[in-house]
Write a structure and sequence with these properties.
The chain has an 8-stranded parallel beta barrel with strand order 1-2-3-4-5-6-7-8, surrounded by 6 helices. It is an alpha/beta fold. The N and C termini lie far apart (71 Å). It is built from 13 helices and 8 strands.
C-alpha cells in the first residue's frame, strides 16, 4: 500500500507536526528538528531577511533526513513561490491571502501545466538533480508540493470560504497576530471577534477538505488549537524556544543559589584579605 504524502495527510485532517525557523539557519538545524520529532520545517522569509541562497542551503541540509523543507515567502507575486519551489521547497506558505482571485494566481504559480502555469526546469535542486521523464516529475510535484494560504487579515477572513474552495490551495493557516491587528484587537487572542474568526476558518477548511494550520508558541496553545481543529501545527519561534529553555535552567540555578544562602546575600561569607591575596 502506497504511503500517503505529507500533503495528502494534511488535507485528510491527520495531525502533521513541525516547526517554524526564524533565526537559526545553521547546517544542523534540520537534523535537530528531525530528532525533536518534526516532519517538516517552515523557514521564514517574510520577517527575517532570509534569502533564496541561504534557503537553498537549508534545503540541502534536509535532503535524505525525512524532514520536509518549506518556506514562507514575503508575498504572493509569482517569482516568490515559483522560485522557492525551484530551489527545493516542498511547500510554500503565502502571507495575507485576501481573495479567491489571489488564491487562483497562487495556485497557478505553484503548479505545472495542465493544473497551473509554473515554469519548468528539470534536473535541478527541486528534483534532487535526478534524471527522469519530465511528465513524471510534473505529476509528482503537482501531487506532493503543499500550498498554504495564510488567513490573517479582515479581508482574508471575509473571503475565507471562497479562498478555501480554490483547487491548489491545500491549507488555511491562521496568522494570529496579524489577524488580531487587522480586526482592531491587537494581541487579544481571547476576544470574541478573534475566536469567531477561528471558527469561521475551521468551518471553511472542513467544508472544502483543506488542512488547517497554526503556529503555537507553547504546549498549551498546541493542545488548545488541536482541540479547535487545527491539524498542521508548527511550533515556534525558534529563538523564543531557546530563550525559554535557557531561562528555565537559569531560574533553577538562581533558585538553588537563593536556597543555599538562605535567600539573602547577608549570610554569605566575605573573603578575607588573605584569601583574596592568594586568589
Amino acid at each position: 500500500m502506497a504511503r500517503k504524502s505529507l500533503r495528502q495527510r494534511v488535507m485528510a485532517g491527520e495531525p502533521v507536526l513541525g516547526s517554524m525557523v526564524f533565526e537559526f539557519f545553521s547546517p544542523g538545524i534540520a537534523q535537530l528538528m528531525k530528532l525533536a520529532g518534526c516532519e517538516y520545517i517552515i523557514y521564514d522569509m517574510e520577517h527575517t531577511g532570509l534569502g533564496f541562497e541561504t534557503f537553498k542551503g537549508q534545503v540541502a541540509a534536509c535532503r535524505g533526513l525525512g524532514v520536509q523543507p518549506m518556506v514562507r515567502v514575503p508575498r504572493s507575486d509569482y517569482h516568490f513561490p515559483a522560485r522557492a519551489l525551484d530551489v527545493g521547497a516542498k511547500g510554500v506558505m503565502i502571507p495575507m491571502v485576501e481573495s479567491a482571485e489571489q488564491a487562483h494566481a497562487i495556485a497557478e504559480a505553484t503548479r505545472y501545466p495542465p493544473l497551473g502555469r509554473r515554469g519548468a526546469a528539470f534536473s535541478f535542486s527541486h528534483d534532487d538533480y535526478l534524471a527522469g521523464a519530465p511528465a513524471d516529475k510534473i505529476r509528482a510535484a503537482n501531487s506532493d508540493n503543499l500550498v498554504i494560504a495564510q488567513i490573517e487579515t479582515e479581508r482574508g477572513l471575509a473571503a475565507v470560504e471562497e479562498i478555501a474552495a480554490v483547487d491548489g490551495i491545500d491549507v488555511l493557516w491562521v496568522g494570529h497576530f496579524d489577524l488580531t491587528n487587522f480586526l482592531g484587537i491587537p494581541g487579544q487572542f481571547d476576544h470574541p471577534d478573534y475566536l469567531a474568526g477561528l471558527d469561521r476558518v475551521v468551518a471553511a477548511g472542513r467544508k472544502a477538505g483543506k488542512g488547517l494550520g497554526f503556529m503555537p508558541a507553547d504546549g498549551a496553545w498546541a493542545a488548545q488549537y488541536a482541540e479547535i481543529g487545527f491539524n498542521m501545527l508548527a511550533v515556534g519561534t525558534d529563538h523564543g524556544i531557546l530563550m525559554s529553555g535557557v531561562r528555565a535552567i537559569l531560574d533553577e540555578v538562581k533558585a538553588g543559589a537563593g536556597r543555599a544562602t538562605g535567600g539573602t546575600a547577608a549570610t554569605a561569607k566575605t573573603p578575607s584579605r588573605k584569601s583574596k591575596a592568594r586568589s
